[in-house]
Each structure stands twice: as C-alpha cells, then as structure tokens.
What we know:
The complex is a heterodimer.
Chain A: E1 2-7, E2 12-19, E3 22-30, H1 35-49, E4 59-63, H2 69-86, E5 90-93, H3 95-101, E6 107-113, E7 118-126, E8 135-145, H4 149-152, E9 160-165, H5 168-177, E10 181-184, H6 194-206, H7 225-234
Parallel strand pairs in A: 1-4, 4-5, 6-9, 9-10
Antiparallel strand pairs in A: 1-2, 2-3, 6-7, 7-8
Chain B: E1 25-30, E2 35-42, E3 46-54, H1 56-59, H2 67-89, E4 98-104, H3 108-125, E5 129-133, H4 134-145, E6 153-158, E7 163-170, E8 173-179, H5 185-195, H6 202-211, H7 234-249, H8 256-282, E9 286-290, H9 297-308, E10 313-315, H10 319-322, H11 327-338
Amino acid sequence: MLILGIDCSTDILGLALMDSNQLKGEYNLSLKRQHSEKLLPLMEQIFELLEIKAADLDGVAVAIGPGSFTGLRIGITTAKMLGRIFSIPVKGIPTLEVIAAGSNGDYILPLLDARRERVYYSFYQRNENKKGLFLKEINKAASAAISELPEILSEYKSEEITIIGEMKAEVQQILEQEGFLVKQSAAENNFTRAAVLARLGQDYINSGQEDDIYQLNPIYLKKPQAEINWQQKYGSN
Amino acid sequence: MAVINMGVEKLNYNARIKKENEDIYILALESSCDETAASVNKNGLEVLANVVSSQVDLHKKFGGVVPEIASRKHLELLLPVIDQALEKAGIGFEDLDAVASTYGPGLVGGLLVTLTAAKTISLALDIPLIGVNHIAGHIYANFIDNPDIKKPLLCLTISGGHTDLLFFENLRGYQILGRTIDDAAGEAFDKISRFIGLGYPGGPAIEKAAQTGDREAIDFPRADLGESYDFSFSGLKTSVMNYVNNEEQRGNEININDLAASFQEAVVDSLASNLIKAAKEYEVKSVVLSGGVAANQRLREVIAERLKEHSLDLYYPPLELCTDNAAMIGAVAYYQYLDHDFAPLSISADPSLKL
C-alpha cells in the first residue's frame, strides 16, 4: 500500500512515500514561504526519482494544523485533489500529532510557536495497548500562554514529559521551575517528519479511518483577524 | 525519460498536445476574489459548464472582501464546484486536455487554492498546466458571448482593480494603449460609495442611487491627460470628498442621489471619451467592454450613443460573465494552449499581475 504524506503546515515542507511499512523516500526541507512554488515540483521530482506515478498511490496523509494558514490550504488542496481524482482515501492528521509521534517517551508534549509567549500544544500518552501505533490524545490541540502550561499539565507532575518542537527552552524552564520532569527530544526528531506523517496515514487508513475530503479542513485554532476585530467591536452575533 | 521540473517549462507531457483543428477540452478554475468557480470549455469559446459559488454575503458586514475568510471558503467550495462543472459538461478528468487556473491578479490566499488544485490535476493526469491572467479573462468573456465579433477591435476593461484600454488585431493577442495612473474606475466607485454611506459593493449601490438623481447637478472634473490614452480617477475622488465636506461644513443637506448620479457621470464621461478617441485613431470594427464596471447601465448607454455616430458595434458580456467566473479563464487558456503557453509546476500566484 503506497501512501503519500504531505506537510506544508510549518516552515518545513514535508513529502514522503511509505510503501507497506517501508519508507521509499522522504523530503524534509526548511523552505520558508516557498511551499506554493516548491510543493508540486518536489512531488514530481520524488515521483520521478522513485519511478512511481501519481496514479500508483493508494492513499494520502496530510498534516492539517495548526500552522500556517496558507501552507495548510496548499497541502490540503493537494491532498483533496489527489483523493478526488484517483478515488483514494485521504487522512488528515493534526500537525502536533505528527510531531509527537516522532518522539520517544511515554508522555509527549508537542509544541509550536504561537507568538507572543503562546504555544500551540497537545498532550499525548504512548498507548501501550496498541504497541505504540497510535498515541492516546490526552489534550486536544489548543493554544495557551506558556505560563499556563504547568496548570494545564498539573496531573502529570510525576511523569517524565518529553517536549518536542518549538519554544522548548522556554517551556522546559517554566515546567522545571514548577517541579516537572522534562526531557527534550534530539534535534533530528524535533520537527514534523514527513515519514512519520506517511506512516501514521498508512496506519489510520489500514485500520479503516479516513476523512471525507468534502469536509476536510485545517485546524486553524484561530479566527481570521478581521473576525476577531469585528467581534471586539460589535460583540458576537 | 524523466525530466526534473523545477521552474523550467516542461513540454513532454504524456497527454499529446492537440492541434487547432481538434477538439480541446479544458477545465478552468478561478478564485482570485470572493467567487469560487470552475468551468469546462471546449475549444475555448464553447462553454460546456460554468459553475460559480459566490461569497458576497459572507463579507458584507466587513464592508469589503476579507482575504482570510475568502481563502478558507475557497478551500471548502473547491471540490463541489469542480464536481458540478465536470458533471454538467458530462466529462471526467480523463477527458481533459489541459487544466487552467487564474494565477493573478487578486488575493493571494484565494489564488493559491485553485492554482494548487490545477497544479495537482496537471501532475496527476500529466496534462499541461495553463496560468491565466484574470483581467484577460474578463476581456475574453466578451468573445464567449460573441464568437464572430468583427476585428480588429478595442477593449475597455474596467473593474475594481483595473482600467485598461486594449487593441486586438485578432484573438491571439493584444496591445495596451492606455491604463489608469492611479485608482481603477471600480475602485473609485467602491471608495466613494463607502464614503457617502451607500456600502459595498459600490458600483451597483451608486448606480441604483443615481437612477433617481440628477447627473448634471454637480459638475465634477474629468481628468485631462492630454494626448495620452491613460486614465486617472483620484482627482475626481478627492473632488467628491471635498464637495461633501464643504457642504457639510456649511450645514447644507446633500442629495445623495444627485451626488451619485453626478459622480457616476464624471467617471462614465472620462471612460467614454478616451475610448472614442482611440476608436477613431485605430479604425476598429468593434468595441468591447469588460470587467465588473461594464455592468453599469449608464456607461453602456453613453458609450453606445457615442459609438453610433461612428457606426461601430458595441459588445459587453451578459451579466453572468461580468462577475468573476471560470468560463472566461478557460477561454483565454484555449488560445494559450494553441500557443503552447504552458506554466511550470513552480508558477506562483501574483497578486498584482498586470496585462
């Protein structure tokens, strides 16, 4: 089963091809703001290098956020079209889940910079029953001030928490101050890895979990600024 | 043999590039503003399907199109409009000879949705990708409706973002004679409409108010650019605002309908005068209006009147082709196809693309 993973949610453009649990190829390229120009050419290139055609795909996994609004739309549009043209399953996977799944440890806190001392975070426990195939989501993706994290995670003070992603130094400092046990992940795991995304997609699709491409949308976690301004001015309607 | 395409035009598509005497089917996509649209065109001007999903109501409370809101909506509407277009045309993806999308001008977030979709379709089906200029699209909307239009012809394209005067020897290309040096005509309508409290979109609002107004009530200035075929509306805009401010200061009540009618007349007069001047010099056989502002009845009236003296045919697209749509994009794409004017997969959206 040939699965393509597509990730344009962060600065790292990710593309990977997983064929029945074997990684065929993977790009993780730090291409800030070039996703719209580079995604399709890189996709064409990796297909040609691996001697496969788009028609050979059996499924698509796409990172659905949070992250760059523009990047998310580019990735999801591409995934939707492939799903529609070839009638293959598409699975949208939260970006924080992709980051977390690339980490070791039993309790994982993936983080993305949400600016102004805030982070996008989620909280996962490695699910022993499924032998690490799926992570159990304890906290759904949300945005919070770094200073709020000790309170949010208060139940898990006795566990070793692996933090992975952006803003690690700041988060580690604040958690350790409150007496948490914190471990950092290594640099080569510390981002959204396309191979992890493709593998997750493969596992979800194999277990019958796919998305309706007509309902597949980004996890924006943030209303458009104009909407926020309007509500501040006029109150929610 | 595999060709790595990183910004270099690729011409060895698996789908054979067809010749002019064959039937060429193109799926065209458009999302540069607040309309998500898809069409299927056969040989350019023949429209097998034209599906448009408009978001005007979504943006009304903000007084203008909000790019982020529009972009989110384009993503949601993308597949439904494509599905409907293919269904209406009675064809499948496998029947397409090429895929086209607007790549500019417009709002970059929106443009990227259909442009990315078109790139994906191109790669998936190995058919040529065609990037189309949205303004050219509005012009070719006229040719869809009038395929036997007499050439050479002049085209005045007037919208929220553009005001251009073009000369066409035939449908394969054009020469720009003049353009606005500041505000576009449609932009002037939107700004004045909002300024005098008539809301958005400005064109229809001002036109409606003008219907019961006296267009000679106030004599607003028409820009004088000498020999040039260029246009200018920011002076007019300032003049209207000064008039309103002065009247308010004096405590006079302003008749909005008269104001709208007089402002509209000044815009129409400027546009028509330049057009007629060019029509005489270039000895054209037809004149075409395009762009959102071409829907303005007073503009059509005045131009038709002045052209009658020169026994020239005036064309403007039917209302459903004046607003954004994909059929017009597919029409332009056809002529680009014949010229093998294909885009690489690395093509970017260009929000300020010009003709």
